[in-house]
Amino acid sequence: MKLHADRLDGQNAIARHGPGGVLVNQTEHTRPVIVPWQGPVLPWDVASFDTLAAAHFEPLLALKPQLVLFGSGARLRFPPPRLLAGLMAARIGFEAMDTAAACRTYNVLLAEGREVVAALLFDPAPGRDAPR
Fold it and tell me: What is the CATH number of the domain that holds 62?
């Protein structure tokens, strides 16, 4: 039996994810990325978790989502609350999880019709940078 994934036109489902990237709309992204529920997938100019600043979260505000899912890489890490002040002031929900969990949760919320954005960091292991 051949299975076909449900695909809603105009929405950005994450087709694959791995330690070094994601595949969205048949395009592989191996650097930090912002995946909104619709519209273009955006590069996210973050060098690493340790370099996060409040300014990195400003592009998320412009998308006006209901919820931001933050994928912190291979392990769960929480950004300091002071970096999220803009999201809190705009009453935008924020959840931190490891990137794999953020990708899975994003797709579930997308299928429910939620206006969700995934902000994803990657920690590629040596020899393992492609999405699965």
Answer: 3.40.1230.10
E strands within 3-115?
14-18, 21-24, 27-29, 33-36, 42-43, 67-71, 93-97
- Output phi, psi for 126, to 5 deg: -55, 125
**pTM, to two decimals:** 0.87
Which tokens belong to 17? 């994810």
Q: Do 69 and 42 form a contact (C-beta atoms < 8 A)?
A: no
Q: Quickly tell me which residue has 């009453």 as its tokens.
A: 91
The sheet that has 116-120: what strands, in order across it? 42-43, 33-36, 116-120, 67-71, 93-97
Burial category of 20 from C-beta neighbours within 10 Å (exposed 0-12, middle 13-18, buried 19 and up): buried
CA angle centred on 19, ends 18 and 20, rounded to 5°? 90
Domain count, the chain: 1
pLDDT tier at 9, thresholds 50, 70, 90:
low
| Main-chain dihedrals φ then ψ at residue 125, nearest 5 degrees | -80, 150
